[in-house]
From TrEMBL:
Keywords: Signal. The lineage of its organism: Bacteria, Pseudomonadati, Pseudomonadota, Betaproteobacteria, Burkholderiales. CDD domains: LysM. InterPro entries: Bact_Kbp, LysM, LysM_dom_sf. SUPFAM superfamilies: LysM domain (SSF54106). This is LysM peptidoglycan-binding domain-containing protein. Residues 1-28 form the signal peptide. Residues 41-90 form the LysM domain. It comes from Actimicrobium antarcticum.
Amino acid sequence: MKKFSTAALCLAFATAAFSLTVSSHAQAASARCEFLANAPDSHLVVRGDTLWDISGKFLQHPWCWPQVWDMNRDQIRNPHWIYPGQTVYFDRINRRLRLGSPSGSPGDTPTIRVSPGMRIQGLGNAAIPAIPSNVIEPFLSQPLIIEENELQGTPRIVAAQEGHVFLGKNDKAYVRGDLKDDTAFQVFRPGLPLKDPETKQIIGYEAVYLGNVKLVQADKSGGASAHVFNVVSTKQEMGVGDRLLPVPPTPILNYVPHPPEQPVDARIVSIYGGVTHAGQNQLVTINRGKRDGIDIGTVLQLSRFGETIIDKTDGKKEKIKLPDTEYGTVFVFRVFNGISYALVMQVSDSVQIGDVAKSPE
């Protein structure tokens, strides 16, 4: 996906959206967001930078970025852009970050405003991403999570090209079902159910993305025949019985890292690819979503439950629980009703199913 719109920085002070004055906001930010002792005076933005990387050069916790820029909620959702060649300055007196010259003279940095949902050709392509966009791009428009009964009534492959058991690129696929005037589709098959580690209830199904197909010839017989599709791309072999969903619009995502607006105490449900452990830049799902206050850009802190052991040192053999171990952060980049996908950012240990993902402290 080439039109991945990216997050960037804002120069305005926070407004009443946070119901805080500038001074009280600064106190709250300083209490939670500490600058590194060796933070540089400035950083020249270069191609290949990410917002997370730049944050990490100045702050102990990169997710604190919006606080030291005094960003309100609307500005987090629709931030300004930042480009290679611009400079981020550390205002040590006010404990703030800003774009512009050291003097901070008006007009130093041009402001480009982007309306919500507007598609910008060329503008966003050069701006720096919030996180490594190449890692998550393939997962931004694929279905991934399928709700129960969502597959009912969707078009399905009923036959493969003559002599083929499975379909590959440029093969013909024969499809039955209502296309609803769409011509471009993604092909997938239902995967294993995802169970909540806490309740053990099924909270969704992870779809196995197989590839893309495009309509060549529509069925004009009213359902007595089949539509003809051409296989445009394949990630895995597709075949009879696999289902089609329309290709969604290319997402326009403007976001910056931020803690959730309300306390979140989630668990790791699965690790993408069916493995048992994850490291940096791998994808995980958590058992919280839109209905729990999670949105794109939410940052959560990872920790592992402390072991319960028997204290054999005093003869009483009491059971005690060791403290939980904090070991990293995840960045939410796609949200469903009760499940979210997150990218593992910084970890000192491997991520495991059942680990805690909670509001950062």
